[in-house]
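Hi all, long-time lurker, first post. I run a small reading group and we've been trying to get comfortable going from sequence to structure in the token notation. Rather than ask abstract questions, I figured I'd post a concrete chain and ask someone more experienced to write out its structure so we can walk through it together at our next meeting. Sequence below, copied exactly:
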Amino acid sequence: MDNLISLFGIIVLLGVAFVLSEDKKRMNARLILCGLGLQSLTAFFIFRVPAGAKLFLVLNDLVVKVLDSATVGARFVFGRLALPPEAVNEAGEGSLGFILAFQGFPTIIFFSSLVSVLYFCNIMPRVIRAFAYVFTKLMRVSGAESMVAAGNIFLGIESALTVKPHLKDMTRSEACAILTVGMATVASNVMALYVFSLRDVFPTIAAHLISASLLSAPAALVISKIMVPEAGQPATLGEHIQPFYEREKTLFEAVINGANAGVQMIVGIVALLIAVMGLTALADLFLGLAGSKLNALFGLGIDWSLKGLLGYLFYPFTLILGVPLEEAGAISRIIGERAILTEVVAYQDLHAAIASGAITHPRSIVVTAYALCGFAHVASMAIFVGGTSALAEEKRGVLAAVAPRALVAATLACLMTACVAGALFTDQAFLLGG
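-- Answer (accepted) --
Happy to help. Here is the structure in token form:
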């Protein structure tokens, strides 16, 4: 029954996107059907085909081993501070507990450098080009949209660089699609942070996050094209373009530049978390003062914090994900807070909920992890608009105009990916067949 609810949830989310569409007469049926088919077939391969499950378990083990390598430098620099919970170093010293700054953030530097090396070795461009070819061939979207969608499976805001020469010619619909796929997926270097945060309570989290990023790319294109259908003629429609990137001169330069980019990302994340969490606490203070009086006056029992209010807003969407009813309240609060507090905080709270027993059902854990796997929050919207418009100044107005729709589309795409995972979920899917 839960699987059927998740399946019904896909229809509901598509219906919400249709209601919010700015031009309901221009629906591209082929794009929508092919996108849904591609997402469903990929999910079926992962969840129901033994070979697919084994492949993703191998990828999970690979990511975990690479992540262990990523912590070597952090342990050398920060000592016991970098030890994950319950770990012991060579000197017999135990961990001081989980500290995000010293255990999670250093992995971003490592993976940023690793991606830069893969670019230098021409591995990453070939992988991105292969995914873009599939999107262009099957969904008949523009080459620029396909390239950004493929790039966002592995990269973040920098994926817009892969189509830099084509940004000046993009249509309104293309602009919305580029922003949507950016916010509906997560970069590989930040994904490593989530793996590090959750792997002690969810051992196969790496494989599921890889799966979620793969599934969300076509979902983002589908939802985006429903909400902002193509009304013009994209310059690269049906074309298989080459990714644009500036290759470093030497391998060591690639390592240095990648590490520096990771440091810049960490500074941005830290600044964002400090500012947003502080402002949220301030908002909760005022909401709490006003809300307590309303509760006392009218006999209400409403949680007037931002997390509580967003939890109420996302509760109906949480129900259509097909999670157990008794855990829907806790899950809706976690999914809702992502819209303001970012997915970094949401994944931390998911870990806390699992560790405390507030969320125990494997289905809830898997579906929530998929729903959170995306940069679909207000701060990210500003970052993507600013970063993309810096590459195409003449399109700043268009990007700013479609950004709110793109944020809604990205949120719906993440929820749809969670529904797809829920529709194919089995008890073995928690371990991906393991």
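A couple of things your group might point at:
The chain has one domain: 2-431.
Residues 2-431 form one domain.
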